[in-house]
Each structure stands twice: as C-alpha cells, then as structure tokens.
Amino acid sequence: EKGLQIAIDGPAAAGKSTIAKITASKLGYTYIDTGAMYRALTYKALQSHINVNDDDALLKLLNEITIELQPSEDGQIVKVDGEDVTEAIRSQEVTSQVSATAAQPRVREMMADKQRQLANAAGVVMDGRDIGTAVLPNAELKIFMTASVEERASRRYEENMKRGINRSMEELCQDISRRDKADTERAASPLKQAADAIYIDTTSMTIEEVADTIIQFAEKRR
Ligand code: C5P
C-alpha cells in the first residue's frame, strides 16, 4: 500500500507536533516539523546579525546553510551546518522573532520547495501553518487543529515547567496571541484552514483522543 501525505496545520502551541509525532510513529511514517526549519533559519540569522525582516538577506543565508531534520527516539533532531540546534531553536529569542522570518515571501517559497522534496518519500506527517493550503495541496488527509488560547498557554506552561523555563501564564498568552496574529495576517501563505481540512478543537480532548481521531481518518483513506 502507498503511504499517505498527512498535513497538520493550526496556530501556535496547539499540540500539532506532539500529535504529529504519535501519528507518524503509529503509522510508520516520517514526521516533518516545518516550524523547526523556520526556527533554524531564524537562529542562524540572529547569530549572523541578519535582520529578520530582510527577505533578500534571509534568502541568501538560506542558500548558504544546510538544515537537516533527522528522526530520533522522541521526534526529530534539527541540525544547522552540522550543529545540533534542537534545543536552541526553542529559545524565547528565536520564538519571538520567527514569525518575522516566516512572513518573508521568498523565504517561504524556498522553504515550501524544500518541504515538498522532503514529502516526496510517501508516508509523511508534516506539521506547520500552510501545509494543507500551500505546501501539499494534494495531501490525502488534512487536519486543522486548534484549542483556546488559555488552553494552549496552559499546556505550554506545563511543558516549560519540565524544561525549567519560567514564564507566566499572562506572558505565554501574549506570546501565543502575538504569533497567531502575525501568522494569520501576513500576506504570504497565511495560517488558514484549507477548504478540505478536518477541523479538530482539542481544548477538552486528551492527546490520545486526538491521535486516535486522526489515525481513524488515515485508516479510512489508505
Ligand atoms: O510550529 P512552530 O510554532 O515551531 O513554528 C514557528 C513559526 O514558524 C510559526 O509561528 C510561524 O511563524 C512559522 N511557520 C510558518 N509556516 C510553517 C511552519 C511554521 O510560517 N509551515
């Protein structure tokens, strides 16, 4: 049987990557976190003192660097020019700048090309903001996953506690809302539910319930 392309889109901290990892692992598919690619470019731009609003400079940088996504036990290792940046790309600094990088049209075009190449090996679960609308418009299964801002902030808060990061619920709500606004309102492939995507509000669902729902849809389409 042929592997499906599964696109999972939605706003910041909706649990997309957690669910995408579980779904990929249960189906034996490759998991691709496209947000990590924008984060890796942003990380490198900050290091190289490149303005995250400068499309030309970012595009040049993107052409010069190598971003690698490698499957690992608990998801995915991200490397830039051979350096393991899996943790570093989750920093507050990168998180607060990444939506600017991701708003640059030519950066997006090149990222989408790279992502399509990665998805060519059939049997992928790809998560992001524009996978169902722009990167893989022919994906067999599209999910648009969301949850209330408060619920997303509270999940992020729990996650931060485990990683020793100290940010208040209020700050987290602000961070998330600001990123949602930037991602939804940008001109180049904004965050938007694809017409043929299945909408899942995960506010009062467990991780297992969400993963099972998606796997049931996937089984029907295989
Ligand atoms: O998924 P994650 O929160 O790590 O993504 C970080 C940022 O990268 C998003 O806030 C968004 O600005 C950008 N992004 C995007 N398109 C994607 C994936 C992520 O614009 N497909």
From TrEMBL:
Family annotation (PANTHER family): CYTIDYLATE KINASE, CYTIDYLATE KINASE/PANTOATE-BETA-ALANINE LIGASE
UniProt-recorded name of the protein: Cytidylate kinase
Keyword match Protease: no
GO molecular function, a single term: kinase activity
Keywords from the UniProt entry: ATP-binding, Cytoplasm, Kinase, Nucleotide-binding, Transferase
Originating gene: cmk
Ranges of residues in domain Cytidylate kinase: 6-219
Keyword Cytoplasm annotated: yes
Catalytic activity: CMP + ATP = CDP + ADP; dCMP + ATP = dCDP + ADP
Pfam families in the cross-refs: Cytidylate_kin
